[in-house]
Structure formats: structure tokens, C-alpha cells
Amino acid sequence: MQVPILKQGGVLIATIQAALSDADLLDLRTALVQQVVRYRSSGVIVDVTAMDVMDSFASRTLLEISHMIRLRGAATVIVGIQPEVAFAMVQLGLTLEDIPTALDLEEGLEYLQQKARSIN
Amino acid sequence: MQRDKNLLKEPAMQKNRPVELARNEPKMELLRELVAHLRQNRTLLREEWVARIAEAQLLTAMTQEEIFAEATSVYDSYVAALETGTFEALQAYARNLSERIIPRGVETHEVVGIVLLLRDVLARSLFAKYQTDFEKLNRILDAYEPAANRIANTVAVGFVQERERVIRQQQEAIRELSTPVLQVRERLLILPIIGVIDPQRARQLTEQLLRGIRTNRAKVVVIDITGVAAMDVTVANHLVQTVEASRLLGATVIVTGLSPEIAQTLVTIGVDLGKMNTVGDLQGGIEQAERLLGYKVATLS
Predict the structure, then answer these.
(1) How far is residue B270's CA from residue B120's CA, in Å, rounded to a whole number?
(2) I need a surface site. Which of A15, A87, B9, B72 has the fewest CB within 10 A?
(3) Which of these, B54, B81, B88, lies nearest to B68 by C-alpha position?
């Protein structure tokens, strides 16, 4: 299943809508990393609200996405991690260190806007 | 004694079954006779029992009238249980009685005490009645004692079970009350923790906090553990995990009021201090949270 990527101003929004296979995750990574420069976006939001399981592959891929996008000159925010998922991830040691996270899409957008403001 | 002798006399070849029957038959009759005796002397024995209760200074939390009323019901249930050999009714009564008297501060030893007193009173009356016929007294006691012991057992167990149920209920209530997640400002939550944290409470605490962050859309959470004297390694680890999980939800956690012992525990388990945001006291924690949220407190002049 492909993940739709929307462009909203200077931000790309990828909303994961169902459980993804490993291949889908890698496709998402490729698509985001390509498009972030193509659209000259300053930020990327990955919305995982619909994910009720986050395994080690998924969280490693999110980490990679974030690092690759940083190298391409933009910031990434992961939004919408469910409380149960968050605690399960921490117990598995998948803490997504140094990736910004936010409660939901709105918060994520605000975070990116603030960041853009502080740079200007 | 009597019974043992009979058993010895039985030829070893003979099967057990007929022996049981032969022995059970008269036992039932004896019980019937016993019950008739107890019914006949109901008033006298009951009064004797109540007097003994007063003498032993049991059930001091209840008035004399109440004791007499309860004694009557207990006596009748007791005799009924002896007669029918079934304990369900008595069990139900014991539970009901416990429900009523536990809130008034009646103790376990008192309940066990009064049932044992009744047992003694009845046994005495049997001694008096059959003092001329030692053989018969023996057989009556053979029938009476196991049943009486079982009754005492049933009542005591019923009482203790009821108490335990009440205690469980209260523990549940305390647990619910013990972890309030409070909103002090828009997007700022406070979680004051007081008392001992066991792994179960820690888990519940985390659950409530994470859910609270979501429902209140919190950005900053202050966890105040001034009221926690010490925590073991498991719980300390849990605290660190809670901090990390909150971050995944987009909230910053500030921990305040760490005691020296807890600080030592955290250092011993090697917590990454870069992840933990700690401030000395609750006031400092709230001030820092306000700074993070962009609030500025100023005096009106």
C-alpha cells in the first residue's frame, strides 16, 4: 500500500493509513527523500496515528528517513504516536532519539513553523 | 473410642461400604436427637450464650439488644446447619453478618470467639443431659463435634473472606485516587506522586500520564516526586521509560523533587542524564515549564 504524500506550503505530509509492509516503508523513504528537494520543502511530517504497532524495522526506517532528510537540508517530525505504542516502543528500546516528535499534525506543523521562524 | 473398637472387630475381608452405612445410620439419628434437644432448650441456651459473650467482653462495639438479636439468628442457623448437614445457608448468613459488623469494627478474634463459645455452651448442655449415660454421651459428641467444628470453620472463613474483599476494594480505591494528573495551565500538566511506588502503581501511573497528555494536548509535564522517599531499580527504570514515552508523544517531562536516595538510584542504573530534565523543587519545575511554553509571570504594578 502506497502512502500518499501531500504538499502543504513548505511542508510535506505523509500520512500512514494502515499497517505497512517493510517494502512499503522503504518506498515511503525513497519517495520522501526524493520529493523533499524536488518541492524545495523545509520540513517533513510523518503521521503515524493509524499505526497501532511499531516494530524495530519501522522505527529504524523512521530514524533513517529523518537522518536522510536532514542531510537533504530539511527537518522531520513524527506525529501521532499512540500512548500504548509509545510505551511499548520505549520498552523495546526504540526511543527514536534525536527525532522531534509531536502530538498530532497540528502540533507538528506548528513545530516546523516555529523552527522556520527562528532561522529567519 | 467406641468406633475404633468396632473397626478393629470387623474382619479384614469385609468391605468398607456396609460398615460406613451401619455407622452413618445411627449417627443421623443421634443428630436428630441432638437437634431436638437444642430446639427444646433454645431460649435457655441462647441466654446462656449471650451471658458468656458479655462475660468474655466480646462484641463490645454492639449493644446488648443487637447481640441478642444476632445471637438468635446465629443460633437458629447453627441448629439448621446441624440438622441439614448443608452449610450454604450458614455461609450466606455469615457473609451477610460480616458485611454488617465489619464496618463497626468487629474483629476476627471476636467472631471466632463467639462461635467457639456457642460450641462450648452446647457441648456443656450435652454433658449435663447425658451425664448418666457415658456411652451415649460419647456417641452424641462423635456426631456433634465434626459438625460443630465445620460450622465454626465456615463462619470464620466467611468473615475473613468478607474482610479481604473489603480490603481489596479499598486498595483499588486508593490506587485510583493516588495518581491524579492535573492541568495547571493550558498545555501544562502536573503529576504529583506521593507514597510508595510499586511496579503495578508505576504502570498505572504511566498509563494515566500518557493518556492525560493526549486528552489535554499537553506540551510540558512536571512529575513531582517530593513525596516519594525511595524507589527501587525497576521503578526508577520505569520512570525513565515514562519520560521517553512522553517525549514520543511530543511532550517534555520535567522531574522535580528528587531525593538524594533516588538520585543515587538513578546514577547507579546509569540513566542518560541528557534525556532527563530535572529541577530541584516543584516551584522551579513549574517556572521552567512556563518558560518552555513561553509564559512570563510578572507582578502587577
Answers:
(1) 65
(2) B9
(3) B54
Domain residues for A62? Answer: 5-119
Query: Torsion over CA of B198, B199, B201 and B207, rounded to 10 degrees?
Result: 160
Per residue in B6-33, pLDDT (tens digit) is 444 444 444 444 444 445 556 778 888 8
Using 50 as the pLDDT threshold, list the residues of chain A that sit under it: none
CATH fold label, B182-293:
Transcription Regulator spoIIAA (3.30.750)
CATH number for the domain formed by residue range(s) B2-175: 1.10.490.10
Residue in B with minimal Cα distance to A106: B217
pLDDT in tens, B143-195: 888 888 888 888 888 888 888 988 888 888 877 666 788 999 999 999 999 88
> Among B30, B28, B151, B27, which residue's Cα sits nearest to residue B87?
B151
**pTM score > 0.80 for this model?**
no
Q: Which residue has the cell 536516595?
A: B261
| pLDDT, position B20 | 47
Helices (H) and strands (E) in chain B, counts: 11, 5
Total count of domains within chain A: 1
Q: Would you call A105 an interface residue with chain B, using a CB distance cutoff of 8 Å?
A: no
Predicted confidence at residue B8, as pLDDT, reads: 45
Portions of chain B given CATH number 3.30.750.24: 182-293
Mean pLDDT, residues B232-236: 87
CATH number at residue A80: 3.30.750.24
A44 in reach of chain B (CB within 8 A): no
Using CB atoms, which residue from A83, A91, A95 is nearest to B249? A83
Among B217, B245, B251, whose Cβ lies nearest the Cβ of A87?
A: B245
The answer to whether ipTM exceeds 0.85 is no
Q: Quick one: B76 exposed, middle or buried, by C-beta within 10 A (0-12, 13-18, 19+)?
A: middle
Residues 6+ apart with CB under 8 A from B300: none
